Amino acid sequence: MNNNQDEAKQQELIQGVGIFLVLAILTIVEYFVGTRAPVAAIMWLLAILKAGLVLWFFMHIKRAFRDEGGH
Asked: Is pLDDT at 70 greater than 70 in this prediction?
């Protein structure tokens, strides 16, 4: 592999770990909101936000909107 591919992989790894940490923090927030002030609207908002992050970054939905050949 050349240097550009290594840098791209490293950048994706850093981004993936960052998104994982954001999801973990949102889960902690979701827990405390659910146990302290059970407001359904806030829980739905957190769930939709987390689902969007998973779709966009881990399921690679963003690639469906790129101009790449062969897809």
From this structure: no
- 34 in a structural domain: yes
pLDDT of residue 69: 55
How confident is the prediction for the chain on average, in pLDDT?
Answer: 82
- Decide: 63 and 71 in contact? Cβ < 8 Å: yes
Backbone angles phi, psi at 66, to 5 degrees: -90, 160
Q: Do the domain assignments include residue 70?
A: no
Q: Is the Cβ–Cβ distance between 53 and 19 less than 8 Å?
A: yes
* Number of structural domains in the chain: 1
- Compute the Cα dihedral for 58, 59, 62, 67 and give only its sign: positive
